Automatic annotation (TrEMBL):
The protein's name in its UniProt record: Putative LuxR-family transcriptional regulator
GO biological process annotation, one example: regulation of DNA-templated transcription
CDD domains for the chain: LuxR_C_like (cd06170)
A Pfam family that the UniProt record links to this protein: WHD_MalT
Amino acid sequence: MKSTELPAIAEPHLIRPRLHALLDEAVQRQVTTVQAGPGWGKTTLVAGWAGGQPRRVAWLTLGRRHATVPAFCAGVASALNAVFPPAAVPGRFGFVANEAALRRLAAGFTRPVPLILDDLHTIDGSPALRVLAALIRRQPAGLRLVLLSRNEPDLPLHVPRAAGRLYPIGAADLRFDDGEAAALVGLLRPALPVEEITALAEGWPVALRLGAGAGPADPGEVIGDYLSREVLAGQTAAVRRFLTRTSIVDEVTEDLAGALTGGAAGRRILPALQRTTGLVVGARYHRLLRAELRRRLEREAPDEVAALHARAARWYAGAGMPLEALRHAADAEDWAYLSHLVVTIAPGLSLSPQRAELAALLQRIPPELLPTTPEFVVCAALLVLFNTDLGALPSLIARARELLLQRSPDEQVVIGTIVDLIEASALMRVTGDMPGMVTAIDGILDRLPEAERLAVPIAAVVRAVATVNKGVGLLWTLRVGEARRYLLSGLAVAQDLGMLLTVVNAESHLALIAYFDGDLREAEKQACAAYHRADRFGATGTIQVTGGYLALALVEVERDRLVEAQAVLRNARHSQTDPAEATLAVVSMLVRAHLAIAGGDHGAAAAALRQARDEVGPSLRAPLIDRWLDAVESETDLLGGQPERAVQRLGDVPGASPAELLILGRAHLAAGHRSEGEDLLRRVTERSDPLSAVSAWIALARSAEARGDTARCTSAMARAVALAEPAGITRPFRALGAEHLRRAEQVLEPLTERELDVLRFLPSVLTANEIAEELGVSVNTIKAHLRSIYRKLGASRRREAITRARRSGLL
């Protein structure tokens, strides 16, 4: 093939319309550069475009023979003559051997001619390049230069660039997008799995062709051979050494390259490689290039690999990138340094989306090392936590403390803080010693300033975990208000640090607090937030989300969705550790008891309660759990027709919660103590607990119904409905036998006690003044009550109000 002929295009060939349109636009400028390393399809693209042009396009494939001025000028003239014979160009003459002659030749064209110079890099540094430089500086109007090169040529391209007459096309433009890659692989080998080759090639055209045509051979090896021949062979020994030594990392910054190679060559080499190969994008090597470089490193300098990983580990640690530091420490098999990193910069990873990768790295530590140092013991403890098999924790904590006695005071502060935190947040939580956990965490928080003085990076992590777990401990020790504050505070810090499991832990317990407050909507919101956050990184089976499941199950019970509550409860059981966390194990049984009570099954409720009490081991110290057990047992007594037992059990509870007062009030009513029962129930309605208040109003309505006081019954039911509807509370209406009283929903808004008193006078003939005298209030007060009654009943006058009140059962 002559150098002035369009190169043959490998078939099958994929036409890329977006790049042809780019070239159409580019040749409107005086100079177009198509610059990329080998294999980027420069020649294929431009030849395909040129072959489809309606206009004439001159082509010259350069080689070393064109390095002299006469040869270059003659070659350009031949390319132009191939598409524009001399007879077609008036004034064309003689042999073209220099730049002046070329300029005279080009001046004969009446319309600009695209002159494509392929493989321009082959004449780098030659006299011929000076001729081309002169043409660019004083470019004839009849020429449009299209320069194809593997590297940036030594040409005055700043001249057309400054004037807006340069159009650069690079590897980023030539890269195949996903659609183009799939289309090309489909043309080459239709039966081949497209995703595998396109992922491997990362848009590099030659990799797509070689990968699709590899046949039974490994595509990576076939492409690696190409890289060796066409890319690496053309680099200097210094550049190849730089590339192999830096191939051990995912991204190569200049500083990191300096740490790996012992010099500052990266500042020069990386930008040059990016320009000349297209296989270095920013700080990242193309995966195929990196794979080939790693093979070379293992082959040429296997003794250096571990040391390079060790250097990378220390650089990443200094840059505050713990996971990358751990990866390279493991690849270097520098286990002592890896364990040091775990206790100084990486413990927060165990509660982050990277926890699975941290676990995989820790599993690479030789087992015989795990009992030998405090740092290794911490690694073993984290592995135990990952496996949720906590039986080995006590002995590991004891071993760590034994080994710490031989360490310096500063090391005792740093490592000891981590050991104490594991004991408090894992072991004490599992055994259920809530007061002990709160005390232990207070000690950790007191020591944190000392850790911060030592500039320990983990201080913020420790603070987040300790704060959330103190909130958990405060909750179960009946200090609910303080618990909420600590949980919210720790949640905010953990969120900033990316410790998502700590956030999930906080949200789950905030969901339980919202349930205890009777706020079902907030409980559902927090529980769902915990679940969805855990779901995003595959942690829905972790202990941190268990509290959220249990809170959501309780919400479903109160909404009378018992099948859904059972399903959520199953999820809670699957997320528990072995052994189970003592508090949550009991709560799980209590939820079963609530389900049985909701279903009216006294036997099942009693059985669940017995099992719950069996779960209370000698180490469980959680006052809230104790109170909850008594409350559920009292509700079970009510279900079994033994209200006096409930009265006896709850009668002397100090600082009783609305839920406890509710059960006690119902028990008094069931035992025939109407006055005491109604008084307790009214106290419940005055508290800020919507869930308990709904049941209290229903119980008051049933009591009024039993006395034949229809007005008070209807008013109480209206209040119950008004409170229940926004939160979807439905169970109490069925469980307390009040479904038939829902006609009170006809009232737009419940009437107050004083409004009910005024309403009773409406059917009489008494005037407003006379009603005021009867009730001992001013007439203006009566008129205000009347306006409110009319509004709530949806009436505009007295007779209409009487009719509506009678229909609603208020009269």
